[in-house]
Specification:
The protein is α/β, with parallel strands linked by helices. 36% of the residues lie in helices and 19% in strands. It has 14 helices and 12 strands. The chain has helices at 3-6, 13-16, 57-69, 88-96, 112-120, 150-157, 166-169, 188-198, 219-227, 238-242, 265-270, 292-303, 308-315, 322-343, and strands at residues 46-52, 79-83, 103-106, 125-134, 136-140, 147-149, 179-183, 212-216, 232-236, 248-250, 252-254, 277-285. A 5-stranded mixed sheet has the order 2-1-3-12-4. Helix 3 (57-69) crosses helix 13 and helix 12 (292-303) packs antiparallel against helix 14. It starts with a helix and ends with a helix.
Length: 344
């Protein structure tokens, strides 16, 4: 991928919000502005367009269904949603930064090149953390392997390594060809895996010397591929793995200390599952936050981002802590007020 596209933004949330007067965020702690209160249930209508990450997609759609009339005590049946699962990069490039989506879900931070594309089109992205994921490496249930090291993962996935068979990586493993499944290059999960496993993001995520790699934006296709081949490996968001039952097997990952850790909500929450636990985001277009339906939905999402029942049980991700939730709600309040002022 181009070097400029591989750059990761180093801006913090405060820097992302700097153009919106984020220095006042601390003063908003623990309170909400009356000028950005949500409209009454019977008056709220409109359409919310969101694109982006397939990893965040099930969380976003679950929240949208709850917002329209779930079990949370609220109902906004006249608000419609137009959801697209495009991959993080595909959402930024083709929908959000072109002004055709209110929100872009992301399994990584926005890149400098994407932020510039947004700026060129007068779109100001505002970042919100919505959950934590335990990115999961899966293999066929018949494969007699239960754990893997980061170095072994690097040997399998790096295009710079001459690795075609399982036994090329570890002589105790089968002398069978590797068959690999994962996200396409439009995916933030693809980018995160390169960054965390291949170190640096300058290696194409394909297998060299005839190794088989199937890239897709359909996470269920990854599960089907691994389930259907005894020599297959793949990776995807924990929510999809957790809903797959016993169809595939998750590998414990050894980050170099000799102690493999299995992916789970508990190990992601505690920080024990490294380097594949990661934050998940949604980005709002500042101008869209002047729309009552968009603002009310995003507030609803963040207010329920600590919910074990929704985020963990229904979807399969780690909910926000109350501290992080408070920071995100304060940032949202400030962003909504700024958007309303700009719209006047």
């Amino acid at each position: 991928m181009p070097a400029d596209d591989a750059e990761r933004t180093t801006r913090t949330r405060r820097q992302v919000l700097a153009g919106m007067g984020a220095t006042g965020a601390a003063a908003l702690a623990g309170c909400q502005s009356t000028s950005s209160e949500d409209p009454a249930d019977d008056s709220l209508s409109g359409t919310v367009d969101f694109a982006g990450s397939s990893t965040v997609f099930p969380l976003a759609t679950t929240m949208s269904e709850a917002f329209r009339g779930g079990d949370t005590g609220e109902a906004h049946p006249d608000v419609n949603f137009n959801p697209k699962s495009t991959g993080t990069g595909g959402g930024f490039a083709n929908h959000f930064c072109t002004g055709n989506a209110d929100l872009n879900n992301a399994s990584r931070e926005v890149r400098d090149a994407e932020a510039q594309q947004c700026t060129d089109n007068d779109i100001e992205p505002v970042e919100f953390t919505v959950a934590t994921d335990a990115l999961t490496v899966i293999v066929n249930t018949d494969l007699d392997i239960d754990s893997i090291t980061v170095d072994e993962l690097r040997s399998i996935w790096s295009a710079e390594r001459d690795t075609e068979r399982w036994s090329d990586v570890n002589p105790d493993w089968p002398d069978e060809p590797l068959e690999l499944y994962g996200p396409s290059s439009a995916s933030g999960t693809y980018d995160y895996f390169i960054e965390s496993i291949l170190h640096g993001g300058d290696t194409e995520l394909t297998h060299i010397s005839g190794g088989s790699y199937t890239g897709t934006e359909q996470d269920r296709t990854i599960i089907q591929g691994v389930e259907g081949s005894a020599n297959a490996m793949g990776y995807l968001g924990y929510a999809y793995y957790s809903k797959s039952g016993d169809r595939v097997k998750a590998l414990a990952v050894d980050d170099g200390d000799g102690e493999p850790v299995k992916p789970s909500l508990e190990t992601a929450r505690s920080g024990a599952y490294t380097p594949l636990s990661r934050p998940l985001f949604t980005y709002a277009a500042k101008s869209s936050l002047a729309e009552p339906a968009v603002a009310a939905f995003l507030r609803f999402w963040l207010e329920h981002a600590t919910s074990e029942a929704i985020v963990a049980d229904q979807v399969g991700y780690v909910p926000l802590s109350e501290e992080v939730q408070g920071e995100q709600l304060d940032a949202l309040t400030e962003a909504i007020d700024a958007a309303g002022s700009a719209d006047e």
